[in-house]
């Protein structure tokens, strides 16, 4: 088999066989196929697309290109949840304990934040003592005993995807549905999921700006999952404004605690119930979404959800006392209130710009090797659609730096106050 023939075949719009796809993925991850041939194939796929069978074969080939997590020693159906990335997206911190409270096993491998999007591992590390580096035996044992454990990425998962994603980034081939869908799904499969719930974000703060694009991606991933024997569901949700009110690591832990008690912001609460219901149905714990939702609401109301979070924090070495004393979380030195500039209705809170402002406060990474400040971030006092008056507090910056000029400039551009505005639709579709 020759790589040049595979490139030519895809360039001409033909389907690649499974053997050809495996030849490419294995050869590329072993450095036997050069970047220029991989780049040519990525561009051919960008223009010629892949059919469902090719997408599934590409996903499995990448999933099997490195280490895979074996979760077979955990009883029950392991449901993983993936978000395509957002600003102030506190859902994983809430969903883990919430669905685990119903007995659903949650064995989650999570990432760190990059750019304007945050990561669950960073958020958990704002809890003093919390250990995200469990051995795989301890990880499995925690889930079997307590239904929930979260670890950082370890081992060499999907090396083919890592290499191909970096190449796509510099060859203008990132935004291709078959390549994005197989990239995301390969990582979920390598991480051991039996079933997958996807939160595909759309809007200014997201990868997919329109509902149509988000739907295409969601449908592509659901079809891949179902073809490779992992039941998959998806939600298309709004990321035009940040989710909830808090953005920043420790601030989002506090927001998750409120939400687990049933006292969280309306949008975060609703999205957690929607995604959680899909997880519970896929895990076989409820017959339909309505029943699942009622079970989740009951677990919030009677305290099982927050108690599961408390046990989870303690099991992984964290200081669980801060659940009742959130003032013990890392606190920034300065709290600076930004006021509403004029009377009207909040028409825009651009998620990408606010996410970048929070990154400039030190809460997010500009590059993979940046160190971050777990205490900093912002808390919104108003959301899109809220009526406000000049001089009201619009948001509070939590900062450890003196110079806030750049942050305030970004916030100024992110916020629009006008005469009329409706709150955005939170859940566009279930796929
Ligand atoms: N996120 C991924 O993990 N892969 C892509 O290709 C795009 C976004
Ligand atoms: Ca939030």
Automatic annotation (TrEMBL):
Gene3D superfamilies according to UniProt: Nucleoside phosphorylase/phosphoribosyltransferase catalytic domain, Pyrimidine nucleoside phosphorylase-like, C-terminal domain, Transferase, Pyrimidine Nucleoside Phosphorylase, Chain C
Q: Which EC class heads this enzyme's classification?
A: transferase
Keywords from the UniProt entry: Glycosyltransferase, Metal-binding, Transferase
Pfam family for this entry, one? Glycos_trans_3N
What's the cofactor? K(+)
The protein's matches in SUPFAM superfamilies, at most eight in alphabetical order, are given as: Nucleoside phosphorylase/phosphoribosyltransferase catalytic domain, Nucleoside phosphorylase/phosphoribosyltransferase N-terminal domain, Pyrimidine nucleoside phosphorylase C-terminal domain
**Enzyme Commission number, as recorded:** 2.4.2.2, 2.4.2.4
Name one cellular component (GO) term.
Answer: cytosol
Which reactions appear under catalytic activity for this entry? thymidine + phosphate = 2-deoxy-alpha-D-ribose 1-phosphate + thymine; uridine + phosphate = alpha-D-ribose 1-phosphate + uracil; 2'-deoxyuridine + phosphate = 2-deoxy-alpha-D-ribose 1-phosphate + uracil
Which biological process annotations from GO are given for this protein? pyrimidine nucleobase metabolic process; pyrimidine nucleoside metabolic process
Q: Which residues form the Pyrimidine nucleoside phosphorylase C-terminal domain?
A: 345-418
What is stated as this protein's family in its record?
Belongs to the thymidine/pyrimidine-nucleoside phosphorylase family.
Q: How does it assemble?
A: Homodimer.
Task: Cite the NCBIfam families for this sequence.
Answer: PRK05820.1, PRK06078.1, Y_phosphoryl
| Role played | Catalyzes phosphorolysis of the pyrimidine nucleosides uridine, thymidine and 2'-deoxyuridine with the formation of the corresponding pyrimidine base and ribose-1-phosphate.
What is the protein's given name?
A: Pyrimidine-nucleoside phosphorylase
From which source organism is this entry?
A: Halotalea alkalilenta
Q: Which gene encodes it?
A: deoA
């Amino acid at each position: 088999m020759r790589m040049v023939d595979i490139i030519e075949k895809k360039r001409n719009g033909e389907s690649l066989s499974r053997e050809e796809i495996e030849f490419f993925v294995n050869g590329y991850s072993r450095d036997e196929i050069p970047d220029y041939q991989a780049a040519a194939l990525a561009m051919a796929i960008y223009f010629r697309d892949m059919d469902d069978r090719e997408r599934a074969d590409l996903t499995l080939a990448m999933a099997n290109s490195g280490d895979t997590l074996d979760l077979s020693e955990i009883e029950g159906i392991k449901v993983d949840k993936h978000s395509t990335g957002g600003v102030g997206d506190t859902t994983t911190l809430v969903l883990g304990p919430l669905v685990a409270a119903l007995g659903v096993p949650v064995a989650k491998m999570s990432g760190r934040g990059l750019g304007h999007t945050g990561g669950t591992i960073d958020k958990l590390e704002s809890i003093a003592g919390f250990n995200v580096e469990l051995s795989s035996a301890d990880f499995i044992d925690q889930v079997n005993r307590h239904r929930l454990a979260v670890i950082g990425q370890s081992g060499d998962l999907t090396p083919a995807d890592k290499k191909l994603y970096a190449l796509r980034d510099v060859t203008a081939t990132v935004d291709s549905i078959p390549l994005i869908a197989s990239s995301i799904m390969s990582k979920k499969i390598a991480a051991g999921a039996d079933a997958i719930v996807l939160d595909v974000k759309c809007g200014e703060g997201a990868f997919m700006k329109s509902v149509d694009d988000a739907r295409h991606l969601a449908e592509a991933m659901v079809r891949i999952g179902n073809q490779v024997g992992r039941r998959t569901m998806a939600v298309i949700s709004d990321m035009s404004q940040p989710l909830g009110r808090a953005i920043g690591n420790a601030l989002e832990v506090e927001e998750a605690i409120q939400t687990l008690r049933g006292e969280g912001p309306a949008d975060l609460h609703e999205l957690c119930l929607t995604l959680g219901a899909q997880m519970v149905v896929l895990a076989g714990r409820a017959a339909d979404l309505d029943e699942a939702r009622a079970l989740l609401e009951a677990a919030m109301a009677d305290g099982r959800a927050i108690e599961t979070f408390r046990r989870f924090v303690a099991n992984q070495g964290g200081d669980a006392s801060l659940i009742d004393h959130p003032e013990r979380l890392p606190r920034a030195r300065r709290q600076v209130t930004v006021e509403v500039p004029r009377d009207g209705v909040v028409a825009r809170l651009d998620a990408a710009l606010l996410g970048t402002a929070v990154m400039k406060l030190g809460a997010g990474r500009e590059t993979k090797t940046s160190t971050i400040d777990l205490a900093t971030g912002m808390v919104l006092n108003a959301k899109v659609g809220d009526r406000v008056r000049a001089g009201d507090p619009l948001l509070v910056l939590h900062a450890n730096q003196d110079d806030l000029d750049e942050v305030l400039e970004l916030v100024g551009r992110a916020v629009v106050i006008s005469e009329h505005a409706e709150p955005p639709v939170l859940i566009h579709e279930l796929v």
